Amino acid sequence: MNPSPGSARPHRLKAFSLTEVTMATGLIATLALPLLAMLAGSASSQGSARDRETAARIAQMLSAAMVSSSPGTFQMEPPAGDPIEIPAPKAGETVRFFSFDADGTYLGETDASAWVDGLIGAPAAVHLVRLRITSPHPQSPTLEGLCELELIVSQPAAAAASARSRDRFLSRVVSP
Predict the structure, then answer these.
(1) Which end of the chain is more exposed for a tag (fewer CB within 10 A), N or C?
(2) How many CB atoms lie within 10 A of CB 53?
(3) How many CB atoms lie within 10 A of CB 35?
(4) What total number of domains does the chain contain?
(5) Are 98 and 80 in contact (CB under 8 A)?
């Protein structure tokens, strides 16, 4: 029997089946997971690059702040705080430790135990610096009068030394 014109016809709505929706969702998830993994990796790389840039800025600031003051003494003038007297090594080396915040702002001097075990109880400290001055090598006449300056900048400051990332910077300074 044919419906008469004007009578209501049953309408069939066009829609996706549950199987089609499941397949499309699986396909999108399969394509999206590698993209999300790349985004997470790039965020980690960005943080590492920021830490390295801050470490380089700290090393540059410290090496520029080292001046010969009185005979046998270096003086380091950090941007914040009082000048620090560092005795020049007669034979061997002189080692000092410093802490800096996330932006590279000088916080103060620390000790060797903080370098080894981590700086606990100082939430602002992010970077630890080990400054080592080695006496001139008498067997090398071309380096006479120059001390080797080694700066190791590591982070995070609260972690033990074995768990921190490190950046090493080498330079030479004129022996006072």
Answers:
(1) N
(2) 12
(3) 8
(4) 1
(5) no
With respect to residue 108, please indicate whether it lies within any of the assigned structural domains.
yes
Q: How far apart are CA 155 and CA 168, in angstroms?
A: 12
In a domain, 145, yes or no: yes
DSSP 161: G
pTM of the complete model beyond 0.85: no
- The torsion region of residue 130 among left (phi > 0), alpha (psi -120 to 50) and beta comes to beta
Tokens of 107: 């916080």
Amino acid at residue number 150: E
In a domain, 22, yes or no: no
The residue type at 13? L
Q: Which domain holds residue 133?
A: 32-174
Segment 120-149, tens digit of pLDDT:
888 889 999 999 999 876 555 555 678 889
* Other Cβ atoms within 10 Å of 139 Cβ, number: 6
**How far is residue 78's CA from residue 106's CA, in Å, rounded to a whole number?**
7
Q: Does residue 13 belong to any structural domain of this protein?
A: no
pLDDT tens figures, 76-95: 888 777 888 988 887 788 99
Which residue is listed with tokens 């380096």?
Answer: 143
Separation between Cα atoms, residue 158 and residue 79, nearest integer Å? 23
Residue 170 to residue 89: CA distance in whole angstroms? 17
